[in-house]
């Protein structure tokens, strides 16, 4: 067997594989002899079928199968040994007048090569690194939510603003009849709210569904209508009140503090605020880190210029899926995935040049930290090392989980690498300011 490569340009090559009869014949002959030993053909004793008959029936199928195995095995070995950084997979070139009845075969493959490039972390316009803080407004809002959650409902005779009103929505024509409970603070507009205020148990209110709630999802929940229908639903519904309640807020006392954080860990409202601020800002770090990663990714893609074997990749995309794509579909798919491919190459270059590695012990400890975080969410604050080791061992026996956790760990290592080696414009913002700046 002989394998050679012709470079078309820096990004494209053709690999030629010559397979001689001596490369495949011994294996084909052995398989056919095994077939002969086990063949059951009427008129012949088992193991005594003429070899010519076996070759006629099975010969070409075995030949094709063995040549293809030999071809794939040696092509992959060649690409590895030559250290060719290929994109996609080699694409077989069509050959006219190919004949399996010949003794020797030649196969050609188009290959797309990864470009050579350098990555600079010195950006002309530094990326913004957000430090999200929990301000007093947010902390007070969180405390009020906690008081509501742990408070109690007190029955009333007449509706006032801020109450919780239970009842039934009806519209016979639309087939709506649903019992529900509404927090009046979610009602949109003074006009709608005023229809509730002053009402009593047994009263029926007529309401327009259009702009009834601040959020269309509330309309879906309270009327049990389909999602697509809710957005443009503009009908009258009747709401008959069955119960009126006022939510009394829980007292900010030691009993509540112990329920929230464990006995004696928080003793004053000041400590409560500090704890809420600390916990919130820990969660904000994850969001600011994710945004930093997104922004660094975009900046590196924009700054790092290199060409790709575009035509080869579009051709490969056409053939790689379960269903072949048209040329136009492949072009669209390439355009949608090009940015991701560029960052994949940039990331691979950074990882290789800076020896960012993941060994098993580091991965195991990373998995144990993740397990510990999840257990803490369910109140298991102090699991034993043996418990963590056992769970981690089960998770790491699953290759899909190993891959997922490895990707997370590499991402974490990359983020730390960027933080240590890039300059950022640091900006302190509240969570509301962060959301407004990023998403609006």
TrEMBL record:
InterPro entries given in the database record: Trig_fac (IPR005215), Trigger_fac_C (IPR008880), Trigger_fac_C_sf (IPR037041), Trigger_fac_ribosome-bd_bac (IPR008881), Trigger_fac_ribosome-bd_sf (IPR036611), Trigger_fact/SurA_dom_sf (IPR027304)
Single GO molecular function: peptidyl-prolyl cis-trans isomerase activity
GO biological process: 'de novo' cotranslational protein folding; protein transport; protein unfolding
Protein name as it appears in the record: Trigger factor
Xref: Gene3D superfamilies: Trigger factor ribosome-binding domain, Trigger factor, C-terminal domain
Recorded family membership: Belongs to the FKBP-type PPIase family. Tig subfamily.
Chief location bin: cytoplasm
Pfam families xrefs: Trigger_C, Trigger_N
Trigger factor C-terminal domain ranges (all copies): 268-384
Compartment(s) of residence: Cytoplasm
Annotated catalysed reactions: [protein]-peptidylproline (omega=180) = [protein]-peptidylproline (omega=0)
Domain (Trigger factor ribosome-binding bacterial) ranges: 1-146
GO CC terms in record: cytoplasm
Superkingdom of this protein's organism: Bacteria
EC number(s) on file: 5.2.1.8
Keywords: Chaperone, Isomerase, Rotamase
